Amino acid sequence: MPITLSEGNVTANFFIGDGSQVTGIITSMVALSGSTSITVSATGKCYYKSTNGDLTLTIANNASQNFKIGSGIQIMNQGTGNITVSQDTGVTLYLSGNASSGNRKVTTFGAATLLKVASDTWIITGTAV
Q1: Are 84 and 112 in contact (CB under 8 A)?
Q2: What is the pTM assigned to this prediction?
Q3: What is the 3-state secondary structure (H, E, C) of the chain?
Q4: Which of 96, 109, 115, 117 gives a 20 to 30 Å CA spacing to 71?
Q5: What is the pLDDT of residue 28?
Q6: How far apart are CA 60 and CA 37, in angstroms?
Q7: Annotated domain spans of the chain
């Protein structure tokens, strides 16, 4: 079973009975204790909040952080208060299934996934968003 480490994540390739391969990713957790900007190094990671109070995660624009299209980031909120996912200047953030863009809140016990779909365009999906 080959295992590789890239950008803080462990990828494991498993071979099942019929010879086919299944790949799984063990995600690195980033504990949130205050507001911050999401950077390229966050790709594939999970931002996790278990503290009280509101905070903001800002999605940086391509000029400052050139995320690859297809980049994904997870967000988990087990604390009280909200995590506001904020658009930096020039960034568009759509809620999955909704044509309007804007900042989004991940409320207590909410979970969300961010996916970059085009230059400076992201989609957020999840529960309690």
Answers
A1: no
A2: 0.79
A3: CCEEEECCEEEEEEECCCCCEEEEEECCEEECCCCEEECHHHCCCEEEECCCCCEEEEECCCCCCCCCCCCEEEEEECCCCCEEEEECCCCEEEECCCCCECCEEECCCEEEEEEEEECCEEEEEEECC
A4: 109
A5: 85
A6: 6
A7: 28-127
